[in-house]
Amino acid sequence: MRTLVWLQRELRTQHHSALETALATSDEVIVVYFHDPKQTLGDANSAWLARSLQQLQQDFQSRKGQLWLIEGDFSTQFKSVLLNHKIDQVYYTFQLGAPFSNWQQQALQVCQALKIPLRPFDTENWLPYNQILNGSGLPYKVFTPFYKSLMSKISLLEPFNAPVEDLQKTRSVNCPDHFQSLPKDLQDLSNQSWANKILQHWQVGEAQAWLKLDDFVASGIENYDVDRDLPAKHGTSQLSAHLHFGEIHSRAILFALAPLESPRGQIIHIWLRQLAWREFARSILWHFPTSEQAPFQSKFANFYTELNDFDEQQDKIYQAWCQGRTGIPIIDAGMKQLWETGWMHNRVRMLVASWLTKNANIDWRLGVDWFNNTLVDADPANNILGWQWVAGCGVDAAPYYRLFNPIRQSEKFDAQGDYLRHWLPPLAKYTAKQIHMPSNVPDYPKPIIDLTLSRQAHLARRQQLKASSSTEKSALDECITIV
Asked: Which of 72, 386, 379 lies closest to 250 in space, CA to CA?
């Protein structure tokens, strides 16, 4: 039996059910990553991917194994491997969102045509998504009850098998020379100065993910509840990219932290609650896949201005946001951090999203697109849930009247201005009191949008939407009554 193990975002050697099952039940195993340059999440994501694949190749080699790297149109290359290497069955780990959902559909079509079994392993979550349902058997749309239900079933989590140290069976089929090198598209991207600038801030790969977790547990988790909201501090685990690429499994983290729960239970649970947001986001996308492209609340379908409807001023505003030139220090600092490092502090992510959607009235999907292209941890489920939450059009969304005041938020969470000074050198000389909204600063723009007026305009639009929705509901009720 010859089995193909197809990787997507499970770039690790342990806690990998599809790989372990193939090794245990097959005579020959081929492990492949297919890279389709026309189906990627974004440049920053691809830069991390390139480094992660190189590291994973080394990890396979150190365990006597081999990883194939194949570039080109996914459907074409996938079919070619199945035919040319006489594959008997295909194992893969189910992933959510584009481009993974596209690949999985294409793989199904190819395998059905060739009559080759295709087996998905739904193992990247804590528990199956259809097990976390409310009393009516429906998916949760609010995080807190979802979290309570999830934690009440935590004892159902299946432990992992012992790590497989010998991957020699993945060398049972000779790998062609041209499948042993990093795909050219990823090589070219890796050579760009922007990619190298971003990656100098990160250590990539499975081993580094576990080292980062160990370091966080040893020195960061004690103050996490306070420090996580302070963008000037390294108060978070910064494991998000490792989790997105599957360099570390979130369920493995749960088992690793279990022995620490007794003396440090409350501290650990505060952090695990944040990790559970990832499970919530994935559950929402699994149950409601259309939310990837459309607002969860359909009444918001035409609420925000889309790119095709931009006038010259809105295009200028959007570009200023992307470049960190809005004239609002905390917004600009966050966007500068994103461009330089491929990452942004979570609280600042909420602020920049609120400014774009509510102050600038720009469609949340444009924010998703920019984050997808510039975040190393761009994850379909997390990104969509976060943007729709802030924009007020998703599940468990922020109330329509809640607009983050970026100046107040800056004063509260970066009181001394350390974060602003780091990312905005023109503001370095200003005092803690002045820096959050200085005036007449050389080499720094004036606010491109008036925060007060834009807030009032947003609330007026929301009231209009509310009135329109009420009118439509009354008309529908009347129709139902007549019928």
From this structure: 379
d(CA 118, CA 449): 53
* Residue 213 contacts residue 248 (beta carbons within 8 Å): yes
pLDDT, tens digit, 9 for 90 and up, residues 317-360:
999 999 999 999 999 999 999 999 999 999 999 999 999 999 99
Domain 298-466: CATH superfamily, name plus number? DNA Cyclobutane Dipyrimidine Photolyase, subunit A, domain 3 (1.10.579.10)
* Residue 40 near residue 127 (C-beta atoms within 8 A): no
The two beta strands, 28-35 and 89-93, are unpaired
Cα angle 47, 51, 53; round to 5: 115
Residue 204 CA to residue 58 CA, distance in Å, equals 12
Burial of 99 (0-12, 13-18, 19+ CB in 10 A): middle
How many CB atoms lie under 10 A from the CB of residue 413? 18
Q: Please report, as a single letter, which amino acid is at residue 113.
A: A
Which residues, other chains included, contact 324 with Cβ-Cβ below 8 Å and sequence gap of 6+? 331, 332, 333, 334, 335, 336, 339, 423
Distance CA 90, CA 151 (A): 33
**Mean predicted confidence (pLDDT) in 42-69:** 97
- At residue 70, the pLDDT reads 98
Between 151 and 466, residue with greater pLDDT = 151
Q: Look at the block and give the residue holding tokens 């809640």.
A: 402
Single-letter amino acid, residue 242: H
